[in-house]
Specification:
Layout (H helix, E strand, L loop, with lengths): L9 E4 L2 E5 L12 E6 L3 E4 L6 H11 L4 E6 L10 H8 L3 E3 L24 E2 L5 E4 L2 E7 L8 E5 L4 E5 L17 H12 L5 E4 L8 H25 L2 E2 H8 L8 H17 L3 E4 L2 E4 L2
Parallel strand pairs: 4-5, 5-6, 6-7, 11-12
Antiparallel strand pairs: 1-2, 2-3, 3-4, 8-9, 9-10, 10-11, 13-15, 14-15
Helix pairs in contact: 3-4, 5-6
Organism: Sphingomonas cynarae
Protein name: MBL fold metallo-hydrolase
Pfam families: Lactamase_B, WHD_BLACT
């Protein structure tokens, strides 16, 4: 991971430039990818962590071109914190995913949240941000987070998929903010589209997006089937299920696997298929 160039602008196509932030980890892969969209004027999608070197790299890539907006797919700490110093440096608004109102924060505390995220304008389904020869249209894709947005670039049939669809692994879905039912519905929605390429927040560009999305749906359904088979054998706690389901998993990723299994259990519970009793889950009678 450390061998990939951070801070270097890479032209992916005439309207899209990518800059990799220096924040590799088991959860971010090689790091967060910031995308600059446009030619004569630009938007910056997910400026990433509040890292001075990464901010300097973004500003150098912008190269004094007018910035129309700083666009945020969701409120995680590896995606949105640099929006604030970038806004201060450019004087342009932060737009995109909705923040949490104070009343809705109860029970949603999460170490991965950027609690200071405060956009100047919230974008909803179908809202657009545009410039000279480019338009970004918001697509609501909740699941990884409740406020996740993807952004479609109509001019080139590209989709900036944030963490909803990544180029290296499936997303962590961590309740209560993450919701497996919503995540699956959002994947189904993408399957109906004809996007040419996805530019994710982590990992390489996805050149055959519908095939990947079909595979992701199948993978999640396979996990659901594993859970149901294990619970038909016996009532179990999540840790025991993860031990059976994720053989050889990097120990650093066990907490993420446990959160995703919990998300599946909540979804199965809503559908009347399983019941949670304290830390133990069983098949519904």
């Amino acid at each position: 991971m450390a061998d990939l160039p951070t801070g270097l602008p890479i032209r992916l196509e005439p309207l899209v430039t990518r800059i990799l932030a220096p924040n590799p980890s088991p959860y971010t892969h090689t790091g967060t990818q910031t995308h600059i969209v446009g030619d004569r004027d630009v938007a910056v999608i997910d400026p990433g962590p509040d890292d001075p070197a990464h901010l300097a790299a973004i500003l150098a890539a912008i190269d004094d071109r007018p910035v129309r907006a700083i666009v945020i797919t969701h409120h995680h700490r590896d995606h949105s914190p640099a929006s604030r110093p970038l806004a201060a440096a450019t004087g342009v608004p932060i737009v995109g995913a909705t923040p949490f109102a104070a009343a809705s924060d109860v029970g949603r505390s999460d170490a991965s949240f950027d609690h200071a995220y405060a956009p100047d304008s919230v974008l909803a389904e179908g809202d657009t941000v545009g410039g000279d020869g480019w338009t970004l249209t918001a697509l609501a894709t909740p699941g990884h987070t409740s406020n996740h947005l993807c952004f479609a670039l109509a001019e080139t049939q590209a989709l900036f998929s944030g963490d909803h669809v990544m180029g290296w692994a499936t997303s962590v879905v961590s309740p209560p903010d993450g919701d497996m039912g919503a995540y699956m519905a959002s994947l189904e929605r993408l399957l109906e589209r004809d996007d040419r390429v996805y530019y994710p927040g982590h990992g390489e560009a996805v050149e055959n997006p519908r095939r990947l999305v079909r595979g992701m749906l199948g993978h999640r359904r396979q996990r659901e089937g594993q859970i149901l088979r294990l619970l038909r054998e016996d009532a179990r706690e999540i840790g025991a299920m993860v031990g059976r389901m994720y053989a050889g998993l990097d120990p650093r990723l066990v907490p993420a696997a446990e959160r995703s299994v919990l998300a599946h259990l909540y979804d199965l519970g809503r559908r009347g298929l399983v019941i949670g009793e304290g830390e133990t889950w069983r098949i519904a009678a």
